[in-house]
Specification:
about 375 residues; Butyryl-Coa Dehydrogenase, subunit A, domain 1; Butyryl-CoA Dehydrogenase, subunit A, domain 3; 3 domains; 4-stranded antiparallel beta sheet; about 15% strand; globular
């Protein structure tokens, strides 16, 4: 069986282009923004986005027939690692200038849904959302989802609450996962498209450690949704949700690796400039070991991410690999940034450097996309099967 990832010459060239755009375009703009800015200014966004579009680098992970480039999961992991290497990159890779791809669950929709929602999202860089997590929990959607959708003729009436839903307050549309049959267990969950301003749909932004991809509490109060907005058939929602969540863990992990790489780079540069007691930090063994440990862990996290994504591309079962990549990369990210902050001293916690923002936001990565403890359970279950 084929194993071991390979980077083609085309992908390597594309990665170099992404790196140049981040370095020459995004980082200089960020330097002029508030350190906690969630986005870059719209005029700058579209100035760069138009260049990206003309270079055929727009929505690279979306299908070609809808305006994307059709790249696979592995390719997007390689590129996402580069896109994330800037101040707002952990939750807004590339500041969104490479396009915004809709939730992958939409590709299970019918032709009319794809043309009405997916295509214009890619064209116009709309924000979208997907709503799985509820106050009752998020790591076990099969049992935690209580948001109800009751069918009445050709419509469904949705009631319930979702929590920590990114972009819901600014999205043009999104997908909500509801329980349509309380007695059917895993087979009783169904997905629906929710449009901006739909009566009965109310998002409320929540203040958290991060400032990009602002999360929301979303309430549904007698929200009437026509059957045309159902994605797939009744009862298919959980399978769609799990496929969405599992596959997304690879680019999520690539973001962790990318920000870790950027933090280590800052630490190396600072250690070569900063002197204490007559000697550069880079000459001190304590600092050298911090840098070495970070490099080793980042290389391991990258391998776990890329190798798992490569396996997913081959059509094999990649669920355990996705959990391993997400678990390890999120915990490595925290350790690497912590060392970088320590090496920088007071500068590490100042907003002049991106480290303090990364430090805050990295803490969320051990919770988002499934907490570390749940992923350990998944991995252990595989080992003990």
């Amino acid at each position: 069986m084929e194993s071991g990832y390979q980077i083609s010459e085309e992908l390597a060239a594309l990665r170099d282009q992404v790196r140049r755009i981040i370095r020459d375009e995004i980082i200089p703009i960020e330097a002029k923004c508030d350190p906690d800015a969630p986005e870059i200014p719209q005029d700058e966004y579209w100035r760069i986005a138009k260049k990206v579009q003309s270079a055929s680098m727009w929505c690279m992970g979306a299908p070609k027939e809808f305006g994307g480039q059709g790249l696979n999961t592995f390719d997007m992991c390689v590129l996402t690692e580069e896109m994330a290497q800037h101040r707002m990159g952990l939750y807004n890779p590339g500041a969104g200038v490479f396009g915004r791809t809709p939730p992958p669950v939409i590709w299970a929709g019918n032709k009319e849904q794809l043309e009405k929602y997916a295509a214009p999202t890619i064209k116009n860089a709309w924000h979208t959302f997907y709503a799985v997590t509820e106050p009752s929990g998020g790591s076990d959607p099969a049992n935690a989802i209580q948001c109800r959708a009751v069918r009445k003729g050709d419509t469904y009436v949705i009631n319930g609450t979702k929590i920590f839903i990114s972009h819901a307050h600014e999205a043009e549309w999104g997908v909500v996962f509801t329980r349509t049959d309380p007695k059917a267990g895993r087979a009783g969950i169904t997905a629906f498209i929710i449009k901006k301003g739909q009566p009965g749909f109310t998002p409320r932004p929540i203040r958290t450690l991060r400032t990009s991809a602002i999360p929301n509490e979303v309430s549904f109060e007698d929200c009437v949704v026509p059957i045309e907005q159902r994605v797939g058939e009744e009862g298919q929602g959980l399978n769609l949700a799990l496929d969405l969540l599992t596959r997304l863990r690879f680019p999520y992990s690539a973001c962790n690796v990318g920000v870790g790489v950027a933090a280590l780079r800052l630490a190396i540069e600072h250690s070569k400039r900063r002197s204490t007691f007559g000697e550069l930090l880079s000459k001190r063994q304590a600092i050298q070991w911090m840098l070495a440990d970070s490099e080793v862990e980042l290389r391991a996290a990258r391998w776990l991410t890329w190798d798992g994504a490569w396996k997913a591309n081959r059509g094999e079962d990649f669920r355990t690999e996705a959990s391993i990549a997400k678990l390890y990369s999120s915990e490595v990210l925290g350790r690497v940034i912590d060392r970088a902050v320590q090496i920088h001293g007071g500068y590490g916690v100042s907003k002049e450097f991106p480290l303090e923002r990364w430090y805050r936001e990295a803490r969320i990565r051990r919770i988002g996309e499934g907490p570390s403890e749940v992923h350990r359970m998944v991995i252990a279950r595989t080992l003990l099967r």
